[in-house]
Amino acid sequence: MTRHDQTKEKILKTARDLVLESGPDKLSLRKVAAAASFSPSSIYEYFESKEEIIQTLAASTVSKLDALMAKVPKSIDAPSRLARFMACYITFARKQPEDFLLAFHRLPSGRTSPAQAVEGTPYGRILKTARDGIEDGSFLPQDAETIAYGAWGLAHGLATLQVTHLKNYDVNFKTADKVIITAWISGLGRKKNS
Questions:
Q1: N or C, which end of the chain is more exposed by having fewer CB within 10 Å?
Q2: SS3 of the chain
Q3: What percent of the chain has pLDDT above 90?
């Protein structure tokens, strides 16, 4: 790692610490510079703005989530894989709530239409699993994006409640999540009433 890379990492670590302490809205380049023992002008050699730092931190969080999801075996059937991805998302949020909230509540998606590629992302894994399930008959024929959006939305809603409004609520969320996710996924394969 070059000295430039080391300095950039130090700036990001300092910024992350400040965000976790006070939230992203109170972050400023001046505060990052002071906490990292740099002059404010020297920060501009590495980042153009506070937003660029926050975007970099968020991208790092998404990469960590993707690495966790990559551990789910590709060999398991689509419904089980989808359930595991949803559980990974919730677990990640519970273990790293500040990073989760920064990445998924602060910044909009860079994807603006279904035509844009999502390979190599957490959502891309969910979308591919939806397509696999439709192809192998595990899920009723429908739009894979709808399944992926629903899976993401359900996992995100459960995760958000657990790290915000219900963070002090004394209940076994893991068991509740499994029941809810299993029921939702089973509905994807249920035959329609004639």
A1: C
A2: CCHHHHHHHHHHHHHHHHHHHHCHHHCCHHHHHHHCCCCHHHHCCCCCCHHHHHHHHHHHHHHHHHHHHCCCCCCCCHHHHHHHHHHHHHHHHHHCHHHHHHHHHHCCCCCCCCCCCCCCCHHHHHHHHHHHHHHCCCCCCCCHHHHHHHHHHHHHHHHHHHHCCCCCCCCCHHHHHHHHHHHHHHHHHCCCCC
A3: 54
Hey, what's the torsion of the CAs at 41, 102, 58, 12, to 10 degrees?
A: 40
For the residues 141-168, what does the mean pLDDT come to? Answer: 94
Does domain 57-189 sit in CATH 3.30.365.10?
A: no
Q: What pTM did the predictor assign?
A: 0.84
Q: What is the CATH number of domain 3-48?
A: 1.10.10.60
pLDDT value of residue 194? 39
Every domain range in the chain assigned CATH 1.10.10.60: 3-48
The CA distance from 32 to 10, in Å, is: 10
User: Mean pLDDT in the chain?
Assistant: 89
**What is the distance between the alpha carbons of residues 139 and 14, in angstroms, rounded to a whole number?**
46
- Residue 186: the pLDDT is 93
